[in-house]
Amino acid sequence: MSKKSNRRAPNASDDTAPKRPHLPVMLAEVLAASAPKSDDLIVDGTFGAGGYTSAILDAAPCRVLAFDRDPTAIAAAVPVLEKYRERLLLLNAPFSTMSAAMVEPFGAGGRVDAVVLDIGVSSMQIDQPERGFSFQTDGPLDMRMSQSGPHAGPSAADIVNTLDADPLADILFQFGEERRSRHIARAIVMDREKVPFTSTKQLADLICRVLKTPKIDGRHAATRTFQALRIYVNDELGELSRGLDAAERLLKPGGRLVVVTFHSLEDRIVKDFFRSRAGRTPQGSRHGPVATDTGPAPSFTLDVARAIPPTDAECAINPRARSARLRWGLRTDAPAWNRDA
Questions:
Q1: Dihedral angle computed from the Cα positions of residues 20, 23, 29 and 33, in that order, rounded to the nearest 10 degrees
Q2: Which of 105, 196, 257, 281 is deepest in the core (most CB within 10 A)?
Q3: Where does residue 101 rank: exposed (0-12), middle (13-18), buried (19+ CB within 10 A)?
């Protein structure tokens, strides 16, 4: 995934405003939570423009193993790779593969001191009309974070032109929380019989027509639908769940898992992961039978149980940070949980 950029709300774009620089969101908080030290090996699972990676490598004489499944992010990383040379290894792969990719990088023995994940889509991707993430500028209806290679799958156009109305509506409701998902899905199926959907503007115009308004609660009417398709096309929530499990297996005792999310669906997954791994799941009624099976030992401890929001000062400088939330946990010496536990 391409990250470490100046984030915005999902799919929002203002092409009439000057392009802001790509600022890593909640950078100070990420550095405090990951606490890089001399000789640490840290995984940056979402390299993007290299903002977090560069700050981590500048903070301490440590090493970073970085991942990004977007080939364009890899191609643009040459200056960062040249600057840090032997202290940085960058792989073109999803961060969920980090456990399988740990073949003694840097002689680390397969365990790391911190994992940092920045979830979602980056403004770099949104700012490129040819990627098909934005409804503000016309482009091909693509939305894939990896448009080629082994990690590329069906595009958003493939989805809207082939799925029946019911499963398409389910995607819009589940991943976009779009209340009028059935109306939009039926309209898509009817329109595509005449002309298949190929562009972002074509889909955005249909949504505005169905919802009878260009904006809802101050946001473009197509925001929820575009978010849903992007999440589905890239399996973002599945990738996040697998990445959390992989990080749990990789971290040393005392290692830190730091995750920045940008909407409630992502944050809920991270919150539930940390809550269960820290043994903070609800215990049931005190009047019920006493549980005899306490389950696996906690694999994380939480110094801060609640999500950390960005500061007002950061939001004033970078409005795209407003939806960001950071959660982090400290790895115990207990074995990693079985994913089905």
A1: 160
A2: 257
A3: middle
17 token code pair:
């405003």
In the three-class reduction of DSSP (H, G, I as helix; E, B as strand; rest coil), residue 276 is classed as helix
Closest CA to 49 of 133, 144, 123: 123
Q: Residue 56 corresponds to which amino acid?
A: I
pLDDT tens-digit readout, 276-313: 999 987 555 555 555 545 679 999 999 988 999 999 99
Dist. CA 52–CA 90, nearest whole Å:
13
Q: Is CATH 1.25.40.10 correct for 146-233?
A: no
In single-letter form, the type of residue at position 201 comes to K
Q: Partners of 312 in the beta sheet?
A: none
Region 27-123+236-331: CATH code: 3.40.50.150
The separation between CA 206 and the C-alpha centre of its own chain, rounded to angstroms, equals: 27
Give the C-alpha separation, 302 to 310, whole Å.
19
Q: Where are the domains of the chain?
A: 27-123+236-331, 146-233
Query: C-alpha angle 95/99/102, rounded to 5°?
Result: 105
- Report the alpha-carbon distance of residue 83 to residue 87 in Å, rounded: 9
Q: Say if residue 10's pLDDT is above 70.
A: no
DSSP-H helix ranges across the chain: 27-34, 51-59, 71-75, 78-84, 98-101, 123-126, 156-162, 165-176, 181-192, 200-211, 223-233, 236-250, 264-277, 312-317
Average pLDDT over residues 219-240: 92
Residue 164 DSSP code: -
Residue 201: name the closest of 58, 2, 65, 15 by CA: 15
Report field, pTM of the whole predicted structure over 0.90: no
The yes-or-no verdict on residue 20 having pLDDT over 90 is no
Same fold yes or no, 27-123+236-331 and 146-233 = no
For 53-94, the pLDDT digits (tens) are: 999 999 999 999 999 988 888 888 999 999 999 999 999 999
